[in-house]
């Protein structure tokens, strides 16, 4: 008699409702050099944590400094350990937890924006409805033909999620998302 196959122990199988898990947005300021991104990501994969969003770009060209923005979900004590370990990597200048306490209030959240490009195919009433809804969400048409639209939408990830969900029954074909860019609120630098 065969035993039922159990899924491997991984953060992929942690349900969003799992107790004590929090979504965190981390900003990691690093030297822009080969291998740094792999080392940063390796810390997360080594702990079995998924990175929900990852963006990287050079922010200070003269100093060769880049900002890595990571959105992850996990247990607070493990995320604190990850932050401490990130701080010890030599090319890391600093680690900023933009959601310091995992707060869900707007005041405690960083300013987050994401860009998505979304292709929707349809004719007739579906086409008209897609255009109407895109206008409500302030999505911009960047390409179109008689049979499709490509929309560009910028906003919080939750706004993009809602737009995608609404477009699904109208003929959603393809989605490309950039990942979250985030800064802390207020006048001070991170």
| CATH fold annotation of the largest domain | Alpha-Beta Plaits
Helical percentage:
25-40%
User: How would a crystallographer describe the biggest sheet?
Assistant: 5 strands, antiparallel
Number of strands: 9
CATH class wording of the largest domain = Alpha Beta
- CATH-derived architecture of the largest domain: 2-Layer Sandwich
Give the CATH superfamily of the largest domain: ACT domain
Strand content: 35-45%
Distance between the first and last residues' Cα: 58 Å
Class computed from helices, strands and strand pairing: alpha+beta
Provide the low-confidence segments as ranges: 101-105
Radius of gyration: 20 Å
Report on this structure.
Its EC number is 2.2.1.6. It catalyses: 2 pyruvate + H(+) = (2S)-2-acetolactate + CO2. Catalyzes the conversion of 2 pyruvate molecules into acetolactate in the first common step of the biosynthetic pathway of the branched-amino acids such as leucine, isoleucine, and valine. It is an enzyme of class 2 (transferase). Dimer of large and small chains. By secondary structure, the protein is of the alpha+beta class. The chain has two domains: 17-108, 2-Layer Sandwich (Alpha-Beta Plaits), CATH 3.30.70; 111-182, Alpha-Beta Plaits (2-Layer Sandwich). It contains four helices and nine strands. The strands form two sheets. Strands 5, 6, 7, 8 and 9 form a five-stranded antiparallel β-sheet that branches. It has a four-stranded antiparallel β-sheet with strand order 2-3-1-4, with helices on one face. The radius of gyration is 20 Å and the shape is elongated. It starts with 21 loop residues before the first strand and ends in a 7-residue tail after the last strand.
């Amino acid at each position: 008699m065969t035993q039922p196959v159990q899924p491997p122990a991984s953060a992929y199988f942690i349900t969003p409702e799992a107790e004590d898990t929090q979504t965190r947005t981390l900003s990691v300021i690093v030297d822009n050099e080969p291998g740094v991104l792999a080392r940063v990501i390796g810390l997360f994969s080594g702990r079995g944590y998924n990175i929900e969003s990852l963006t990287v770009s050079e922010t200070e060209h003269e100093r060769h400094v880049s900002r890595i923005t990571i959105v992850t979900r996990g247990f607070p004590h493990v995320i604190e350990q990850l932050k401490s370990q990130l701080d010890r990597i030599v090319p890391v200048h600093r680690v900023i937890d933009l959601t310091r306490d995992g707060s869900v209030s707007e005041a405690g959240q960083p300013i987050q924006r994401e860009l998505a490009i979304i292709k929707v195919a349809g004719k007739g009433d579906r086409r008209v409805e897609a255009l109407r809804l895109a206008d409500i969400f302030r999505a911009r048409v960047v390409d179109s033909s008689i049979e499709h639209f490509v929309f560009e939408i910028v906003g919080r990830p939750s706004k993009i999620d809602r737009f995608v969900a609404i477009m699904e029954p109208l003929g959603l074909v393809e989605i490309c998302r950039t990942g979250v860019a985030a800064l802390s609120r207020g006048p001070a630098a991170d």
